[in-house]
Amino acid sequence: MSQQLAYVIITPYSLHKSRTGGILSRLISRTGLDLVAARMFAPGPELVQKYSEAIISTNDPQDRKIQELIRDYILKNLSPDGKTGRRRRVMMLLFKGEDAVRKVRSVVGNLGPDRRVGESIRDTYGDLIYDDNGTVRYFEPAVLAAPTAEEANAKLKLWAQYSDTDGGLLENTIAYHPGETPQRTLVLIKPDNFRFPTGRPGNVIDFFSRTGLYIVAIKVLRMSVADAMEFYGPVREVLRTKLKDVVGAKAKVALEKELGFAIPAETEKQLGEIIGPVFGDNQFENIVRFMAGRAPSEAPAAEQTQPGSEKCIALIYEGVSAVTKIRDVLGPTDPSKAPPGSIRREFGQNIMVNAAHASDSTESATRELGIVKPAENNFRRVVEQFCGGA
After folding, report:
1. Domain check: are 41 and 158 in the same one?
2. DSSP state of 98
3. Domain extent for 103
4. Does one domain contain both 154 and 248?
5. How many domains does the chain have?
């Protein structure tokens, strides 16, 4: 069966209720598809109107009345707020693979009075409540997805047209109380979460949702060797100097065992001075290899700017004291020293393979955002490569 590109839109209500992680976990683990792109949108009236007009379909297995509910829901809940004019956030995820549209729609589920509890995303996170007279009292679809590959392609082209004007790193979508000063911070869901289709990326996002912060940008990232070198550049000198004593001590033990005589303390220190920087450079190579798929020494200069083979998810969180709140949930670099309930304690393996990265200051966040470029429109490129232009 040929490759397909499927989309899922996480609704403003699902984002507001911090259900993003649970939804993503199900989509990755139960479809086995490749998450190839993601983008935040704050749809304007024109995009909302055009998308709502494309909802009613004879190819959709859902009842016509349900389709009409979804159309009306889109017009009401994806449009800018009628009182404030503030645009609402939605998240669009793109999945690629064989029979992708059917697989995604199967996990998303349909809405109806006979739905089963917990079987699909909509069973768990959606609501369709009728009163005794059969009138709909409350409706929340949780996510939106296309019923067929043809309709998925058409709707993806529509969203791609507006992906620059209505999407990217969102501005002015969150209301704050007087006196509150929001921050933005970067989170990377690291490659160790993507070794095989698993719910781990979503589970990590679930942990971050405890902060009460808001996602204002998302990007599926394959970091180049050059970007990884720049991103972790500040760590390199630390590795070269910080580990001298540890390396000297290890060298002393190894040489004493091999040569059969004691190494004096002064020689141990000299060994650290000589071998420490070399060991630090080797550790830096390992970090770049882990993030980009190749170490600097393994990538010819002409190839170092090409996208790497390892996948990350880059997220921008916004809110009051965002840097501190995210770092508290993440835990220290060494998972063995992380407190119970932190991300690195739950999902980390060692100092390098530790589930996620988060900026340690607003200054670091600014520098790292300049490298990761969360507003870069990979979404549109993926859609146009697969579906063609508008």
Report:
1. yes
2. E
3. 1-168+375-390
4. no
5. 2
Residue 207, domain member (yes or no): no
| pLDDT tens profile 232-253 | 999 998 888 888 888 889 888 9
Instruction: Produce one character per residue of 118-137: b if its CB has 16 or more CB atoms within 10 Å, e if not.
Output: eebbbbebbebeeeeeeeee
What is the band of 117 on the pLDDT scale with cuts at 50, 70, 90? low
Cα 376 to Cα 164: distance, rounded to the nearest angstrom = 9
249 inside domain = yes
How far, in Å, CA of 374 to CA of 8, rounded?
19
| Helix (H), strand (E), coil (C) string for 9-34 | EECHHHHHCCCHHHHHHHHHHHHCCE
Q: Same structural domain for residues 135 and 63? A: yes
* Burial label, 146 (beta-carbon count in 10 A; 0-12, 13-18, 19+): buried
Q: Are residues 3 and 144 in the same domain?
A: yes
306 touches 321 (CB < 8 A): no
pTM of the model: 0.93
Residue 269 tokens, joined = 């220190």
